[in-house]
Design brief:
Chains A, B: GO terms for molecular function: methyltransferase activity. Two copies of one chain form a homodimer. By secondary structure, chain A is an alpha/beta fold. Helices cover 29% and strands 26% of the residues of chain A. Chain A folds into two domains: 118 residues, Cobalt-precorrin-4 Transmethylase, domain 1; 137 residues, Tetrapyrrole methylase, C-terminal domain (Methyltransferase, Cobalt-precorrin-4 Transmethylase, Domain 2, 2-Layer Sandwich). Chain A starts with a helix and ends in an 11-residue tail after the last strand. Chains A and B meet through helix 2, helix 5, strand 5, helix 6 and strand 6 of A and helix 2, helix 5, strand 5, helix 6 and strand 6 of B.
């Protein structure tokens, strides 16, 4: 490998947005068109319309660090490499895995040209379909206890619910993690009003989109799957009924007098 | 006004992303091209390349509810109205103001076709330019005490810092609110390690972009202006030095053993 080839290498970590082609930014489209090798979880790679000269290296969803290292290795060999994520690559996705691999890897990986291309992350797409539930202070929590202990997740949920944040839950449920979302609802029922709106936003902007709103008292974890982002309102969050149209859910920009404690 | 005209009215609340034309989604571009009347804060309207037949109604940044009501009125009169925001319209922006106006306004406003077009919000664009600081649980807080009391902001900052969230601060400073960001840093210095990375991300993706990283101990509020999103790391957030290249800042996807309390 020559020094010259090294200098042409680049690694781009690209967010493809929640799923609709209309929500892929022109920047993402351009960087994809410039790429030579594409690393990612199969369903994300399937969204790309690659040319015959563009190479596709698919891997399982759980092999993030291996995938990042393989991609960095090819970039160091001079290739224009793309690592693709759904949504935004910086939100519970590949950008952090690539940074982890860079920190742990050979010094030459730090010299690589790294570009992160942001995208519309799931909670924003879900919020847009239902009104403006993230209209005031909010947080995003991954409910996966593969990478942090469940007690930490519980402590975080309780802290933000008590402090009045709207909560967006990523990775709410999977075959290997079937009980966590139900447990989270149980905990939140002890902190938030029973009528707090809960949004189940599945596959926002895709043909199989499904949106549902219910009270926290009735929130049923079995409504969620791996493609769902769950948004739990704050005590301020309001529902506007609209007759035959779907209700709007929003969190006002201001705090009402009674909530100022 | 005939019933027929009412039915053709539509109000779209559009996120134009952080500023680069490459980060405007094709969906936003399409909805803009379909619009007849455009309501917004002047700098956001200035980003649009409107046709002579498209009407522009600019207003000051503080008149959000009036602007929303004026836009809804025109939509109810049968116009295809666009309300434009920078970033994502659902994050401290116009989507919540439009929902507030709908809830308080005449019943016919609930019958209007409302479309919210999501966009890349500032914290995602800033994070992408610097690595992956939002790679684990994070929150977004507006530091404006125009719409909520300062004590609530302090309580929220303390709750999320103690619970281990990365914190993105929107509206960190303005001429009318000069001291709040300094006070927030002061409070956070009492909770977080002195070496916690703080990112000042100004105008991400625009020609006047400016990114700076410093330790919380040295974080200087005067570095921020109205176009800045400030991201404060968690105790997990790491900085990778890269010689001549700008350092990378990221938050690992997992919790390290020593932080599991």
């Amino acid at each position: 490998m020559s020094a010259g080839r090294q200098k042409t290498g680049r690694i781009a970590v690209i967010g493809l947005g929640p799923g609709s082609p209309e929500q892929v930014t022109p920047e993402a489209t351009r960087v994809v068109s410039e790429g030579e090798e594409f690393f990612g979880y199969t369903p994300y790679l399937d969204r790309l319309d690659l040319r015959p000269d563009q190479l596709r290296i698919a891997s399982d969803n759980r092999e993030e660090l291996d995938r990042a290292s393989a991609a960095l290795k090819r970039a160091a060999e001079g290739k224009k490499v793309c690592v693709v994520s759904g949504g935004d690559p910086g939100v519970f996705a590949m950008a952090a895995a690539v940074c982890e691999a860079i920190e742990a890897g050979p010094a030459e990986w730090r010299d690589l040209d790294l570009v992160v291309v942001p995208g519309v992350t799931a909670m924003l797409a879900v919020a847009a379909r239902i009104g403006a539930p993230l209209g005031h202070d909010f947080c995003a929590i991954s409910l996966s206890d593969n990478l942090k202990p469940w007690e930490v997740i519980e402590a975080r949920l309780e802290a933000v619910a008590r402090a009045g944040f709207v909560i967006a839950l990523y990775n709410p449920i999977s075959r290997a993690r079937p009980w966590q979302l139900g447990k989270a609802f149980e905990l939140l029922r002890g902190v938030l009003p029973a009528a707090t709106p809960v949004i189940f936003g599945r596959a926002a902007g895709r043909p199989d989109e499904r949106m549902a709103v219910m009270d926290l008292a009735d929130a049923d974890a079995s409504r969620a799957d791996m493609a769902t982002c769950v948004i739990i309102g704050s005590p301020e969050t309001r529902v506007i009924e609209r007759g035959e149209r779907a209700p709007l859910v929003y969190t006002p920009r201001f705090l009402t007098a009674e909530s100022r404690r």
